[in-house]
Amino acid sequence: MDQNLITTVNRLQDALATLGPNANPIDLPQITVVGSQSSGKSSVLENIVGRDFLPRGTGIVTRRPLVLQLINRRATAHPEKTQQQNETNEDEWGEFLHIPDKKFNDFNEIRQEIVKETEKTTGKNAGISPVPINLRIYSPHVLTLTLVDLPGLTKVPVGDQPKDIEKQIRDMVMKYISKPNAIILSVTAANTDLANSDGLKLAREIDPEGSRTVGVLTKIDLMDQGTDVVDILSGRIIPLKLGYVPVINRGQKDVESNKSIQEALAFEKKFFDEHSAYRANSHYCGTPFLAKKLNKILYNHIRLTLPDTKAKIENTLKKYQQELVSLGPAEAVSPSNTVLATITEFCNEYRSILEGKASDLKSTELGGGARISFVFHEIFNNGVKSLDPFDQIKDGDIRTILHNSSGQAPSLFVGTAPFEFLVKRQIRRFEEPSLKCVTLVYDELVRILNQILAKPQFNRYPALKEKLSTTFIGFLRKALIPTNKLVTDIVDMEESYINTAHPDLLKGSQAMSIVTERVQASKPVPVDPKTGKPLPHNSAALSKEQTGDDTFGGFFGNFFASKSKKRLAAMEPPPNVLRASGQMTERETIETEVIKLLIQSYFGIVQRTIADLVPKSIMYNLIIYSKNEIQKELLEQMYNTEDMNELVKENEFTVQRRKECEKMVAALQNASDIVSSV
Ligand code: GDP
Ligand code: MG
Known about the structure:
There is one protein chain. By secondary structure, the protein is an alpha/beta fold. Helix content is 54%, strand content 8%. The protein contains 23 helices and nine strands. It has helices spanning 2-16, 20-23, 41-49, 107-122, 165-177, 198-206, 230-233, 252-256, 261-274, 287-327, 335-354, 368-385, 395-405, 416-427, 431-453, 462-496, 508-522, 539-547, 557-561, 565-570, 586-638, 644-647, 652-676, and strands spanning 30-35, 66-72, 93-96, 99-104, 133-139, 145-149, 182-189, 213-218, 244-246. It has a nine-stranded mixed sheet with strand order 4-3-5-2-6-1-7-8-9, sandwiched between helices. The longest helix is centred in the last third of the chain and has 53 residues, at 586-638. The protein binds guanosine-5'-diphosphate and magnesium ion (MG). Magnesium ion is lined by residues 41-42, 61-62, 149.
C-alpha cells in the first residue's frame, strides 16, 4: 500500500515533469545526512540509492554539498536485460547541472566527475566549499526524492583548511537541515560514543522534538567483541521519536577491492541474522529496513500534503483551461468568418464608444465620445472666443482707412466700406482654429481606433489588425477632405458677404450715441481761468480746431513734426508709405470708436455662427459619416479579398502560448486523474 502511494507520486512527478521545477505543485522532502567526518554518511546514501557512485574513504572526502535528485522513470522495455551493477545501462543515467547536455551512463564516471568538480572549487588539499554540486539520477530503480550529502563535521583544521572550518561546515549543514521538509539522517559510527555524536547534537538543535530525525548507526561490524547498540536501539540512551537503525556499509578494504553492493548487503543481512544481540530483531536492522523506514516517512509526508497537492493541481488546471479558451481554437474556423466577425466586433465597439455606451466605461478618464465633446465645447469654443479683432486692428489703422475711404474730401459720417474691409480681414482668422478642430477630432477618432485594437481579442491576428488599422485611417483621411472643405467654405461664406442688415448687429445710430455718451463722460470739464467756473460745453476744444492755430496738430501733424525746418522749407514729396498720425481730433475719435463697436458686434455674430456650425459640419462629415460608413468600407477592403488567408495568420506568441497551455492542460489533466484515483 505504501509503495502504491509513492508510485502514485512518482507517476505524478512524471506527469508534471513538463511543468518545470517552479510550477510543480508537489513538494517532496529532502533527505539530508549529518554526522562527523568519516562516520559513513556517503556510504549510507549510496546504499539507499543502490548504486556505487559517491566518493568515499577515510579523511575528508565529501567537501562540497551534493544535491542528489533521484528521478524514477519507467524502464523502456528490454525484456532480456536486467539491472546489472556498474555496467552501462540505457535506462539509468546521471546528469550534472554544470554539464547540462551530457548523459553519464557509467556510474564510475559519475564518481570521477564529482571528485573533479569538487577539486575545481576547493583545491586538492582538504578545502571545503558551500557551493553545491547538483546531480540527477534517472532510474527505474530509485524513488523520486532528493538526497543531500554534506561534508562531515570536524573540529581541527587540517591541510589548507581555514581556522574556522568547524563553523563553516556547521553553517553549511544548518542551512540544509533547517528546511522544514528536510528529513535528517543523523549518522553516528557505532564504534564511537553516541553522547559525543556531532550529528545528533546538531539534529537536536534544529529538531528538538525528533519528529524528522532518523538515527543511523554505522560500522556495527567494527564494534569491539561483546559490545552492541541494543541499548541505543531501545531508546534508553538518547531517545529519538523515529528511532535508530543499525547498518553495515562497506569498509575501507571493501572499497579498495571493489566489493559490490549486493555482496555488501548479503554480508550485512548475514551479520544481523547471526549476531546474538540482534538476531531476535534482525528485521529492524540493516540498509533495507532503513530504506523502508524512509519510504514510510515519505509516505506520511505525501499523505499529509496530498489534499493540498490535489487542490493545487485542480487550480492550476482551471487556470490553464481558461487561458486556452481565451486564446481561441487553434485553427480559424474559416478566414471569411473570422474577418467578418472581427470587422463586426470592431464596428460595434466603435459605435458604442462614440455613443458613450462602451462596455468598459471608466470613471477615471473621459472616453471617446466625451473626449470629442471636450474638443468641441472646451478647446474649440474657447479658441474661437479668445479671438479678439482688436489685437490686430489698431486705432491708427482705422483712422487711415477712414481717411482713405473718404477720398480727398474728409467724410462726415461712417460709411460701410471701411467697416466691411476691416471685418472681412478678421473673419479669415476663424479658418485656422476651425481646421485645427477638424484635426483634433481626427486625432481622437484615431485614438479610439487604437483603443479598440489594443484589446486582447485583436491580438490574435496581427496582419488582420494591421489591415483594419490602415483601412480605417485611409478611410478617415478620405473623409477629411470634404470635412476640411466644408469648414473652409463656412469661413469663406462668412467672408464673402457681410450682412450689415443682420438683426443682431448694432445699428449705426445706436453705436453713435453710445460713443458720444462715452466721449462726453470721459472729457474733463473746462474751467474759466478768471471765474473758476465751468465753461460752456465744448467751446475750448472746438475753437482750436476751427481756428487751425495749432501748428503741428491735425492729421499730418506728427509727420511734419519729425522733419527739420530745412526740409519743411524744401517741400519734399510725400513718402511712399503715408499713415495717419498725430493726435486724433474728436471727430476722428468718435468715428474710430463707432467703427470699433460695429466690428465688435459683427465679429461676435460670426464667432457664434462659427462656434455653432463648425462642430456640426465635423459631426456630419467625419464622425457620423465614419460611424455609418466604416463597416461598408472595411468589408469592401478586407472581406473576400485575395489576401484574406494572409490576414488570419495567427500571432507567433498566440501559437506558442497555446501549445504551452495545451501541454500544461494535458499534464495537469493526467495528474488530476492520477490523484483522484488515490
Ligand atoms: P563520510 O565521511 O561520513 O561520508 O564517510 P564515508 O562514507 O566516506 O566513510 C568513511 C570510511 O568509513 C570509508 O572508508 C568507509 O569505507 C568506512 N565505513 C563507512 N561505513 C562503514 C561500516 O559500516 N563498516 C565499515 N567497516 N566501514 C565503514
Ligand atoms: Mg562523505
